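We keep the chain:
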Amino acid sequence: MGVKIILCPDCEKENLPGADLCESCSHDLTYLNRQRETAPIQKRIIQDSIALLSLRAPIVVQPQTILYEVLKKMREKTVGAVVIKEGQHITGIFTERDFLYRIALHNLDLKDIPIGEVMTPSPVLVNLSHSLAFALREMAMGRYRHLPVMDDQNQCVGILSADGILRYLIDHLEE
């Protein structure tokens, strides 16, 4: 039999069944008060951190890097996203979806466009210590398929992808 909990969707704090407000952040929990058992895979998603996933090292480029060069790197490394970093700060992310929506149908010269002009600015960042549930919520709320992952020293250590989470789920579903 699974554990009965109410998990706050904002701060991920576990609350007692029947709580109307989260003990930590006062988020309204009344719509979550249905008592239900948590399946083992749900419990793992809530408890396991992003650090348990096999993240590939990120491809990091400067905002002035030409789009054509970025696309070549993405194809060579078979990745769906790159991180744009200026100095010590991540300023954007560029994904396959960005290419499809911002570039593909506009007949632009790929060798004239700096990546900084077509990136998604100020991407949502997650930390290695965040739970998979937190990451999934961020991805679902923002309709993102890729999130840069930061370590405790605020360095980008990888990009979390929908594919990576799907592989995790497949690996643990049989448990």
